[in-house]
Amino acid sequence: MKDTTLVVAGMLALSAGTFAFRFSGPALRQRITFPPGAERLLQAAAVVLLAALVATTALAKGHGFAGFARPAGVLVGGVLAWRKAPFLVVVLAAAATTAVLRLLGVP
Amino acid sequence: MRDIALACLAVWITGLSYGAIAVASGFPAWFPAAQSALVVAGASEFLFIGIVAAGGNPLAAALAGLLVNARHLPYGLALPDVTGRGWRRVPGSHMMNDESVVFALAQDDLPAQRSAYWACGVGVLICWPGGAVLGALGGEFLRDTSAFGLDATFPAVILALIVPALRDRTAALAAVIGAVIALAATPFLPPGLPVLLALAAVVVVLPGRAEARAQ
Fold this sequence. Notes:
The complex is a heterodimer.
Chain A: H1 4-31, H2 36-59, E1 60-61, E2 64-65, H3 69-82, H4 87-103
Antiparallel strand pairs in A: 1-2
Chain B: H1 2-24, H2 30-38, H3 42-53, H4 58-69, H5 72-78, H6 89-94, H7 98-105, H8 110-138, H9 153-166, H10 169-185, H11 193-197, H12 209-214
Helix pairs in contact in B: 1-2, 1-3, 1-8, 2-8, 3-4, 7-8, 7-9
């Protein structure tokens, strides 16, 4: 690590800014009363964010494609979750599918 | 409760690889330990050490990390009551992460939401730095999360928990559109921005839209 002071300053800036993001959502909601329609919209927004996070973390590595093994595992997990399989089964099946596909030489 | 423990185990394993990668990139062991406890947001921390290790400016790395973490603002807007009131809001806000938010959203009423959020928040706050410290000391063999398909567990955990919300057709439509927007933007935009851009998909749940379509 080259310049310890600068790197620590960067880390502290990231910590403080992240905390500010975390803190201001609930703080804003306490100060401003949103109409019921907006509340529904905000709930939907969280689900959309999480779905986008699933898609990007399953399919992308940096700016490129992550390969087939990982999204295939996530897809198997998703189908099992849709069919109301237990959470443990969903997560283990996703990891196992990805691992087996890689063993078979799928990227 | 068992589900939360499993999600935290996955976080712990990712923490192991994060600590190992940070040390292998030339950071002293205390750095991933401190960052994991203070930031508690994995993707932004991987990005930070990646940029700095590649010779980037640490303040630019912090800005890139903040872009990735901006999603916590809409998370807090969607779940304002789980963090608690008064002084509790401070630790309560620090507990906010993808896992604690998704476990809270999967519950039906506020008391259940609150306990899921805090249980998962505390679990992640222990497991993420705990894994990072162990990984920093543990060395090389922990660096590759693609072994055993562990890289598939994060998206699978989140997906399993939003599936109940996706049984609502409008929510599912918004989620799919959002996912497509994020994926389409990923090759071109810095990390974090594609997921925020996906928020545009909530227009499909705008009040009145459903009625307009029915006519």
